[in-house]
Design goal:
The chain is an all-alpha fold and 77 residues long. The protein is 81% helix and 0% strand. Keywords: Hydrogen ion transport, Ion transport, Transport.
């Protein structure tokens, strides 16, 4: 009888540990998901704040042309 009680106690303890590990894993997954959502919101906010400035800088860089002779070009003669 004592052996059966001890075995039942060990099985219950193993189930409890397994359940605890499962709950912790689920918690970490939800926590990671929340952090991801927060980071995405921040990235979108920064995108909307800086979009116009970045586009203006890019267009200025592309559209502003300074014709000049390349430093490696040598005129013979």
């Amino acid at each position: 009888k004592n052996r059966r009680l001890k075995q039942a106690k060990e099985e219950a303890q193993a189930e409890t540990e397994q359940y605890g590990l499962q709950r912790e894993k689920e918690f970490k997954a939800k926590e990671a998901s929340k952090e991801t959502q927060e980071k995405m919101t921040m990235v979108q906010t920064y995108f909307h704040q800086n979009r116009d400035e970045v586009l203006d800088n890019l267009l200025a860089f592309v559209c502003y042309i300074r014709p000049e002779i390349h430093e490696n070009y040598h005129i013979n003669g």
